[in-house]
Design goal:
By secondary structure, the protein is mainly alpha-helical. Helices cover about 75% and strands about 0% of the residues. It has 14 helices and no strands. Helix 5 packs antiparallel against helix 6. The longest helix has 30 residues. The model has no long low-confidence stretch (mean pLDDT about 85).
């Protein structure tokens, strides 16, 4: 069995090398060093190459975001699929082009996708950041019974939208759902800020202190991942004291 797996791996690597016109010396390495040669080829020409290409795509998206949008527009024009339209809407939303994003998200809500949780949550987000808070709440209420809603970004923005329209009690109830230790650091920082904005400094102090206390007993990896948020919590706690 082991022998056949090696032969299959060699066959794949040789085929990949030939069809992608990679350097011919890889074929000798694959044939004369079956396992090692094949694994090296996969790492250097398949796995690593994909990582490099992905990094290049991300860099281009940062430097020239309009290129990504134009490419996605061409892709949608070539194939009017749900996935292509949503991908374009996501790119527009990322660039704060809210009205354009909303138009594409709404266009995708048809047939079997008319109640798609992801698209409805993105419509909620786009309306929130374009200051259409009532519409944001309306879309949130279409998905709030979904199994993935509770403690999602959509649920967080739902709470934030209620504050924007003056429904402070409802906003606090929703934002309090995220007040769990060693979790939801960004949402809990925003909860503390919400409490300060609404003259509940004592309650805010509790949340800030919990965040700062947790940062002191966190693993290095977790601390590094949430460093910016926890630094802000410590600074804002100092101002509030």
């Amino acid at each position: 069995m082991y022998f056949y797996l090696i032969v299959a791996l060699q066959g794949f690597c040789i085929y990949h090398c030939y069809t992608n016109k990679n350097n011919y010396y890889w074929i000798f390495a694959i044939i004369f060093l079956p396992l090692l040669g094949s694994l090296l080829y996969l790492f250097m020409n398949v796995v690593q190459k994909r990582d490099v290409e992905k990094a290049q795509e991300n860099l281009i998206a940062v430097i020239n975001p309009s290129k990504k949008i134009k490419d996605l527009e061409k892709k949608l024009k070539f194939s009017e699929s749900f996935e292509n339209r949503v991908a374009l809407a996501d790119a527009l939303l990322a660039e704060n082009m809210y009205s354009e994003a909303i138009a594409h998200y709404e266009s995708s809500l048809k047939d079997v996708f008319k109640n798609d949780f992801y698209v409805l949550s993105k419509l909620q987000e786009a309306h929130y950041f374009s200051s259409a808070f009532e519409m944001s709440i309306t879309y949130a209420e279409r998905i709030k019974q979904h199994v993935d809603f509770k403690k999602s970004r959509a649920a967080f923005l739902y709470g934030m939208a209620f504050e924007k329209i003056g429904e402070i009690k409802e906003a606090e109830k929703l934002l309090r759902q995220f007040d769990a230790p060693y979790n939801y650091f960004m949402e809990r920082l925003e909860l503390a800020r919400f409490l300060v904005r609404n003259d509940k400094n004592e309650d805010a102090l509790v949340v800030y202190r919990e965040l700062v206390s947790e940062s002191e007993s966190m693993s290095k990896q977790s601390l590094r991942a949430h460093r910016h948020i926890l630094k802000k919590a410590k600074e804002e706690l100092g101002v509030l004291l």
